[in-house]
């Protein structure tokens, strides 16, 4: 048996940076503004915030509690609490489902992060192009027309060499960091990447406020147009809130396991939720002024960041430089999230197979990498393959969208649902309450949300996700 060193964060700040790093990712910068843009801005934001506070935050707290109490990976931590609560270890299923979700998310997450890396490369070469052209402040993507720039994404999707190299580099970095351990790898990466991320976010937002249409972006994000709301939008907002805070994916349970006993969990969970939501809104305030000022469509959908923004940067002062910073920022956000996804699986593998961390990281990471290759190829040569083709909701989706959809519609809500029922009804109340650090009215409120509101809300996401035709329009 390999002796496993008990690992842990060196401080509360380290935990917060790592957990915020896990939560803040492509979901905040790419998906949130996309969804807000498509669903009418302010009304979506309002519903989103309600979902975060009433459903997301209580779940974040539940997950960190399970992790800290168990002191192990998501599955074994959940199992420990189930045993101590004298209920069937079947309740620990949420840990296993979460670990599977983390595994699957990372397969396509790394491919998308690879696109980001490609754009970092484009802007680096562009920036140097701008420098040597004698005008460092020339717009981005100098030699391309407004029609050509968006075609880059299509060209990227056809180019397996670039797609796969970027995916490889990204996975390699993620694995190398996780293999170094909690303190020397994950914590260190978060300590460098997260503060830089925040500085870039603030700088680019200020830039957008000066050169873009900040006022319009503010009114778009904060003036609710309720005519755009329907049950589908509410469902989408809740699903996004959970994904964005990494709920249901084992990541928070795993990171919670490394938290020292004296750290108060409730305020820490609140900070994670607050930071994650703050970053999502800031990302909107960073992106929309630029998109508006270039006269582009805020409801462009998933191509907003990859096609619309590069066009916008072209016509802005110092656009190539700011564009470069922008994609570096997304890259950092993606990296700290993918680290947490890999760690959720690796922590389990170390315990399950009694192997060294390095072996678990390279082994698990290698398998994820291979499934990721299939995701990348599903953008071109395998675009017609249907892995769950027999299942109506996945009849038309390629491998990547099927995995994404399966995780979002099935695994994450199932994990969250079992978690909230377990913590709300089954787990030993004394143990859980003591771990939460809450008391009085706050404890009662959290208990109410966990036992009643979350199970209902998460069941609805599950039902409407699986049977979209049931959605009232
Ligand atoms: N929350 C991350 C994001 O917003 C994604 C993620 C999900 C990371 C689950 C870890 C676990 O991009």
Outline the fold blueprint:
Layout: H1 12-23, H2 26-38, H3 42-70, H4 74-84, H5 93-132, H6 148-158, H7 160-179, H8 182-211, H9 214-222, H10 231-244, H11 251-256, H12 265-293, H13 304-314, H14 319-353, H15 357-377, H16 399-426, H17 429-436, H18 440-466
The structure holds phenylalanine (PHE).
Top keywords for this entry?
18 helices, mainly alpha, binds phenylalanine, 473 residues, 0% strand
The helix content, as a percent range, equals: over 70%
Report the radius of gyration as a whole number of Å.
22 Å
| Span of the ends, CA to CA | 57 Å
Global shape: globular
Class from helix and strand fractions: mainly alpha
Q: State the low-pLDDT regions, or none.
A: none
Explain this structure:
Helix content is about 75%, strand content about 0%. The chain is mainly alpha-helical and about 475 residues long. The chain starts with 11 loop residues before the first helix and ends in a 7-residue tail after the last helix. The model has no long low-confidence stretch (mean pLDDT about 95). It binds phenylalanine. The site of phenylalanine has 16 residues, from helix 1, helix 2, helix 5, helix 10 and helix 14. Phenylalanine binds near residues 23, 102 and 244.
What is the structure about, briefly put?
The protein is mainly α and 473 residues long.
